[in-house]
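Shipment paperwork, digital attachment
Item: protein structure file
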Amino acid sequence: MNNRIPALLIGTTLLMSVLVAGPGSASTSTATITGSNGTQSCFSGDTGTCSASASADPTGSFSASAELTSQDSPLSRSTRYSMGLARYTIGFDLPTPTREAVITVALQLDDASASWAQDVPEIFGGTQDAASGAKVLFQLLGDEAPDGCGCGWPSQGSSNAVVVEAAEVGEADSASDIPVQLTMTARNPYGDNLLPAGHYEILLRAYALADLVGTGDWGTVSAAMSGRIESATVSIPATASNLDLSVAGNGANRTLTAVLTDTSSVPIDGRTISFFGDGELLGTGVTQDGMATFPLEGKFRGGSRLFRAEFAGDDAYGPASSEIGP
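Attachment content:
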């Protein structure tokens, strides 16, 4: 038996919308989800049999199975496993630089099972405790980022979810019709650098894993699953913004000035600022070089007043407000 059977890869493609969400209106870009079939079987061990299969089709449906049977003596045991692996590549675009992107994939697990049956000869003490088992699991991993990123993507924040696991002698677990949420948070760990705008790709891997290792590793381990991808979303938290309000001049020259900046004190242009006096909406202004002004009229030209400026936030920047007065 070969110690290792190379992975078999067959590519398929599915188009799916990816949501890029902020605190205001959301924008949508198209993600290309590419599925490929792969199997890896029979790592080490001189006796026993193994089999594995997997599929990832263009509709987002996937399946995988693995089975490993071993008659190895505990005196000559070694690590073995059989793995059915269905893999998707999920690509998306970041429209604007950001410190963080949250990728969420919703899966529907239609059916899954995992079991281990053990038969140890009496000469070796019969049934023994095991360090073996079968698992059905999913994993999100970073894959590719724009050139020159230099910001820790995509290795940050990989996430695993074990859906079904059987790890005791004779135990069999099964599950069906289970929704699964996988979330991978990718954030820039290096100071003020940003994840640059551009194309990113992550990997979704669905496993059926049969594993035999350790004391009492006779027996048959099997795992199987089937399911489908329901959706994939990418959320970009808004960058924090700062708003400073001041009032200057007297009489007809009395004016409110609001300055909107990001967390690095860089001016934010083209944003609408709402101005209030004593709780009354006075009007709005649009920032240029981060600054919006509003000339005061009537009773607000004199006296002690409470003034307030507000930025509602949008897809790129979070809301901010500032006030001055008595």
